[in-house]
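Quick start: what a row looks like.
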Amino acid sequence: MRSGLYPGELSESVYGFDFDKAVASGIKGVLFDIDNTLVPHDAPADQRSIAFLSALREKGLRLGLVSNNREPRVKAFSEACGGIDYVFLAKKPSPEGYRRLCAMLGIREEEALFFGDQLFTDIWGANNAGIRSVLVEPVDKSSDLPRIKFKRILEKPILFMYKNGHKGKKSF
């Protein structure tokens, strides 16, 4: 059984992902959640995230941020990273924010790859939008808000079923 909550792939971190493979498979744009995907929850862009996103731009990838946060948080992160396109108050898991960002980037959903740290918002939303999804380990679980800690408990049985039924299948 394929669940809309199952990611296309698992990765320890965005920072160790093989983006060359993704580009070779037709990916033209990469969409990211911010909190606990690129940096700890509510943390500003740091040198690591800034350098990482700059390196992806140099590969010719179009980049965007999809966040349920308010605009001041997302805009500040975007500006620190060189002015990445973004959608704030995206209402994830609704697919609309993802689709709107793809349109802003001038790419089709099937040319996009999305990275997030939560199944019920990030991955479900990307899958609903027809975008390949990658679930990453949270950058810093200790920075999670109580509601996110609760959701992570609910994610455990889904991830168990995914890992036992998926057997390491890769999306690329």
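That is the whole record. Helices lie at 19-24, 47-58, 71-80, 96-105, 119-128, 146-166. The chain has a mean pLDDT of 91.
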